[in-house]
UniProtKB/TrEMBL annotation:
InterPro entries: A-crystallin/Hsp20_dom, HSP20-like_chaperone, Small_HSP. CDD domains: ACD_sHsps-like. Belongs to the small heat shock protein (HSP20) family. This is Heat-shock protein Hsp20.
């Protein structure tokens, strides 16, 4: 007499379900990678008045808002749990790089056991800037886990423009 499995068909087993969930997880990870690639190219795809709606995207563990104003670009990043001295910023090639790292030492004690976990937490993110900025005049502040970076925009004068005017006949 053939015994019927509690998992449906006689060929099904808990391991089949585990493989199915692993496959689903891989598909979700691939989907997240695809969305992350799109988020990186988003500033290049935007057009129009960017003052009315800031660009928001998340990758690398840091959620970032980028808002272009008349005379500056404001980048706001959520970095909860970090201290100001654990954060470093740099600007190069029209991109802002944010890096934060710290060590976490969690200890838990009860009458029967002690548990202690140590880990090193690092996050970093390179954010493409929508316009050319004056890197040397950038400023930043960090309050209650929120980093705000203000980058003045390079102003272009029409006189300094290398383009040539063409008359229409």
């Amino acid at each position: 007499m053939m015994r019927r499995s509690n998992f449906g068909n006689s060929g099904d087993s808990p391991f089949d379900f585990e493989r199915m969930f692993e496959r689903m997880n891989r598909q979700f990870e691939e989907m997240n990678r695809q969305f992350a690639r799109f988020a990186e190219t988003r500033p290049a795809l935007e057009s129009g008045d960017s003052d009315s709606m800031p660009t928001v995207w998340s990758q690398g563990g840091i959620q970032v808002d980028v808002a272009e104003r008349d005379d500056s670009v404001a980048v706001t990043a959520d970095l909860p749990g970090f201290e100001k001295d654990e954060i470093s910023l740099s600007v190069a090639n029209d991109a802002l790089t944010i890096r934060a790292e710290h060590d976490v030492d969690d200890a838990y004690e009860s009458e029967n056991y002690v548990r202690r976990e140590r880990r090193h937490h690092t996050v970093h993110r390179t954010v493409p800037l929508p316009v050319e900025v004056r890197e040397e005049e950038a400023s930043a502040s960090y309050t209650n886990g929120v980093l705000t970076v203000t980058l003045p925009v390079v102003e272009t004068d029409d006189e300094d423009d290398d383009s040539h005017h063409i008359d229409i006949e």
